[in-house]
């Protein structure tokens, strides 16, 4: 039986707001810093891409407007943010600043959300009998509201039954995003049940999101509480 020289399996990881897709393992030398941007009172910022590996890397960078509807994330082509350069080559040990530029002066009263997509491109002439490692990063970018009201997420929580599954449902009526992580349910007797130890996801302003609950956490009764990290700050909310 002939073995194909390349194995390709995508694996998604979400850590601290950054989503990473990699074929097989995190073996590529492509690194990004920082992993998110927030623009306030300025129209430009930057993210560094670096090559920590031993081989030359080609990458493509794109930016998308980020919205949420029907409990899902939606990405559309951005007209308000541009990036430079959109294509680059990094030699081992080299790094490159990617500029993120807001066109025009922000007049938004609600935070605007975007995603910066960084794709490592496969080699044009890959070596035979070698695994191919390529990474995809998706980084959040936020433009805070242009007014005197401080940005704030205003959340409401509930558990919804849909078919045979229970979902944790979170609505955000504030003017800024909420990054949710480290969620634990606490019942009336004080018993604790972990829902997720790491990143749960984001709820953008004016949006509602749902996350399915594992069978071990489906018994969540009214009157309990949720302990959760919201934008890095611990909070407790009633259900």
Automatic annotation (TrEMBL):
Q: Name one Pfam family in it.
A: PapD_N
Q: Which residues form the signal peptide?
A: 1-27
Q: Record's superkingdom?
A: Bacteria
Q: Which UniProt keywords apply?
A: Signal
Q: Which residues form the Pili assembly chaperone N-terminal domain?
A: 37-147
State the protein's name. Molecular chaperone
């Amino acid at each position: 039986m002939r073995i194909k020289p390349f194995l390709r399996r995508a694996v998604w990881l979400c850590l601290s707001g950054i989503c990473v897709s990699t074929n097989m393992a995190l073996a590529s030398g492509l690194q990004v810093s920082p992993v998110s941007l927030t623009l306030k009172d300025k129209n430009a910022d930057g993210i560094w891409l670096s090559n920590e590996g031993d081989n030359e890397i080609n990458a493509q960078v794109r930016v998308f407007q980020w919205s949420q509807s029907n409990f899902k994330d939606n990405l559309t082509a951005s007209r308000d943010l541009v990036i430079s350069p959109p294509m680059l080559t990094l030699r081992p040990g080299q790094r490159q600043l990617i500029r993120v530029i807001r066109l025009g002066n922000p007049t938004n009263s609600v935070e605007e959300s975007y995603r910066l997509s960084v794709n490592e491109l496969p080699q044009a002439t890959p070596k035979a009998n070698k695994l191919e490692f390529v990474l995809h990063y998706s980084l959040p970018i936020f433009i805070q509201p242009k007014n005197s009201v401080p940005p704030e997420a205003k959340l409401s929580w509930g558990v919804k039954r849909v078919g045979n599954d229970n979902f944790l449902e979170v609505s955000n009526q504030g003017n800024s995003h909420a990054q949710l992580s480290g969620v634990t349910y606490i019942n009336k007797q004080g018993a604790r049940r972990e829902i997720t130890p790491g990143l749960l996801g984001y709820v953008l302003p004016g949006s509602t999101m749902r996350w399915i609950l594992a069978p071990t956490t489906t018994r969540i009764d009214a009157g309990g509480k949720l302990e959760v990290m919201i934008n890095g700050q611990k909070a407790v909310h009633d259900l």
